[in-house]
Write a structure and sequence with these properties.
CATH superfamily of the largest domain in chain A: PurM-like C-terminal domain
CATH class of the largest domain in chain A: Alpha Beta
Strand order of the largest sheet of chain A: 8-10-7-11-9-12
Binding site for ATP (chains A, B): 125-126, 151, 215
Largest interface: A-B, 75 and 75 residues
Strand content of chain A: 15-25%
CATH topology of the largest domain in chain A: Phosphoribosyl-aminoimidazole Synthetase, Chain A, domain 2
GO biological process, one term (chains A, B): thiamine biosynthetic process
CATH architecture of the largest domain in chain A: Alpha-Beta Complex
Radius of gyration of chain A: 20 Å
Shape of chain A: globular
Number of helices of chain A: 9
Helix content of chain A: 25-40%
GO molecular function (chains A, B): ATP binding; magnesium ion binding; thiamine-phosphate kinase activity
Largest sheet of chain A: 6 strands, mixed
Order of helices and strands of chain A: HEEEHEHEEEHHHEHEHHEEE
Binding site for Mg(2+) 2 (chains A, B): 49, 78
Oligomer: homodimer
Binding site for substrate (chains A, B): 56, 266, 316
Chain lengths: 320, 320
């Protein structure tokens, strides 16, 4: 059955039926004009991210459930990168009239499953027909009384650390775009990010001075921290161990795996700066340090081993 | 200059520059991973609505600023219909690469201006290229310690009242789709809804038992209240005075103006039920009453002058 056959309200009721999770944060879920979500400390963290077919995902590369996982992860990671705990998602689905309703249902399953990893619940949304399959997600979160970790607090002398996978999604993207389907680790990493959400609030409590999730690419996203903080950041390339499947894939494809690691986006790892005496658990990999910078422009404040990185334009521009 | 020429970050910075409003609710605005919004009573109302070009708006019928007003209004009205005060908007803009950046800037102006009517501010968002111009908005709101007004509280004996314009947007849509550009009142009503946002919290304090904003059409939306409340609703046709420009347009086009009033959506008027002894100000027009219903199905619980309305299928399905 297509979404047009089911109709707007049929689609909404079938999708809503898949979301059944409960949460103490959800005071009122789908079905009214708006949802009502608890914000126990009197503040709510909120972020929106949109995924467009052909640009952020392809239906022949990713299942509906995969797309749901990715759409939720992109937003939940933004909440975690503030040091907050995700509480709720709102989802707007724009779908071609001939989309199978099972695709929308499996998308909802993926959204709900990814949200469930953080304790968050899908509380509302909207649907419309559109020629372009588009999923827009808003995530809400709770800081639990802590101060938000901004991009602007990095200080010279801080260490730069990352938690989560780096370069995996970009490697998976390259592999899929060359027509291959393995190594599975990397292809799956593109389909479903594995985000260490809980380490966001942990970083806040450890005294992280700045934090961001790696969506545009490590150097580009550290560039956002550098620009917002008015500092430079130097990354040590040898801090990264290239995992074996990535090395093999890079060799087979004739590419530099550090391109994936340093400039590949969409893993939604957390990248944070900490005072140098912070005791970091093994979840974190120290990859560089914050340095003073008297001369920089946005995105240019990041070096690799002391030099401007020459491995291509870092980051991902969703209009190019 | 097109959005592709400006690039994602150029677009974001140019759009963000138009949003400059301040609000005590906004603890952190655009520019970080997420925004931070005050939720003083420990809860936040949240709703998402999406507008798709060709389905919800046409660029030859509405200016960018009009579309911004409409996109914001559709969401802000949902917050008001809970009895809450809007505090913040998040906006995801999907745009063809050749969209002029001035269009995006004027869209932002319209969003900010409409939000400003309620005291709300645009606090964040996302952008992506897409073949289909799409604007997804999430609105947040504050109940100020009041209980939310749901769809499910209507009681037999309650009166049904509406605040705001009814049928105007639908009349404007019909006029534009027949190739006309006047009467201006109706065409402008399609372009920019005029929503009595402040009456949402007023209705809550007056003891409204149920409330909804009229986006699908009055009978369809009252049907949502009837279904959620397990009641019937009878609307009196002669409660409505057809405004002169609407009567003239209906005559010229050969249509029944009550079709617009009873089934036309997108005015985002507020429709609420109140105990019959509630003293309502002249902002409210009493249009019917809540009746007991032992037999109804969703959308079928509403009658006009005691009979099923025969003027065509009520409501608007965004997949048909």
């Amino acid at each position: 059955m297509t979404v047009a056959t089911a109709g707007e309200f049929g689609l909404i009721s079938r999708v809503t039926a898949r979301l059944g999770a409960e949460s103490p944060y959800v005071l009122l879920g789908p079905g009214d004009d708006a949802a009502l979500v608890a914000a126990p400390d009197g503040r709510v963290v909120a972020s929106t991210d949109v995924l467009v077919e052909g640009r952020h995902f392809r239906r022949d590369w990713s299942s509906a459930r995969d797309v749901g996982h990715r759409a939720a992860a992109a937003n939940l990671a933004d909440i975690a990168a503030m040091g907050a705990r995700p509480t709720a998602l709102l989802v707007a689905l724009c779908a071609p009239a001939n989309l199978q309703i099972s695709w929308a249902e499996e998308l909802a399953d993926g959204l709900a499953a990814e949200a469930g990893k953080t304790g968050a619940v899908v509380v509302g949304g909207d649907t419309s027909a559109s020629p372009t399959l588009t999923i827009s997600v808003t995530a809400l979160g709770d800081l639990g009384g802590e101060s938000p970790v901004l991009r602007s607090g990095a200080q010279p002398g801080d260490v730069v650390a990352v938690a989560g996978r780096i370069g995996h999604a970009a490697a998976g993207y390259t592999i899929l775009s060359r027509g291959f389907r393995s190594p599975k680790l990397l292809v799956e990493a593109f389909r479903r990010p594995e985000v260490p959400y809980h380490l966001g609030p942990v970083a806040a409590r450890l005294g992280a001075t700045a934090m961001i999730d790696v969506s545009d690419g490590l150097l580009a996203d550290l560039g956002h921290i550098a620009a917002a903080s008015g500092v430079g950041i130097d990354v040590r390339r040898d801090a990264f161990t290239v995992p074996e499947p990535m090395r093999d894939a890079a060799t087979a494809l004739g590419v530099d795996p550090y391109g994936w690691i340093l400039t590949g986006g969409d893993d939604h790892a957390l990248a944070a700066t900490f005072p140098s005496d912070t005791r970091l658990s093994s979840d974190w990999l120290v990859v560089g340090s914050v340095v003073a910078s008297s001369l920089f422009t946005a995105g240019d404040g990041v070096t690799v081993d002391g030099r401007r990185y020459a491995g291509g334009a870092p980051g991902w521009d969703h209009f190019r």
